[in-house]
């Protein structure tokens, strides 16, 4: 039982030390969930478009979502790598 408490204490200690990285981690998780939802079948609404203009609009919105998610993921990974390299250089 004591080991479970020690493991939990280490986890909260890690979160306290890396509080600044939390937004980047959340952003990466959100992008991953978006891509998984899209891969599973989030694009199915395009097949049921009532007009070609509606389908084109959906494609443009999808393109914008993909572009923004790639930018967000790149910025989050860059932030995490910068934080990790700064911490290693400090040691």
Characterise this structure.
The chain is an all-alpha fold. It has one domain (19-90). Helices cover 84% and strands 0% of the residues. The chain is built from three helices and no strands. It has helices at residues 2-17, 22-42, 52-90. Helix 2 packs antiparallel against helix 3 (52-90). The longest helix has 39 residues, at 52-90. The radius of gyration is 20 Å and the shape is elongated. The two termini are 33 Å apart. The model has no long low-confidence stretch (mean pLDDT 81).
Task: Summarize, please.
With 91 residues, the protein is mainly α. The chain is built from three helices and no strands. Helix 2 (22-42) packs antiparallel against helix 3.
Compile the SSE list and pairings.
Layout: H1 2-17, H2 22-42, H3 52-90
Helix pairs in contact: 2-3
Transmembrane segments: 21-47, 59-81
Keywords: Membrane, Transmembrane, Transmembrane helix
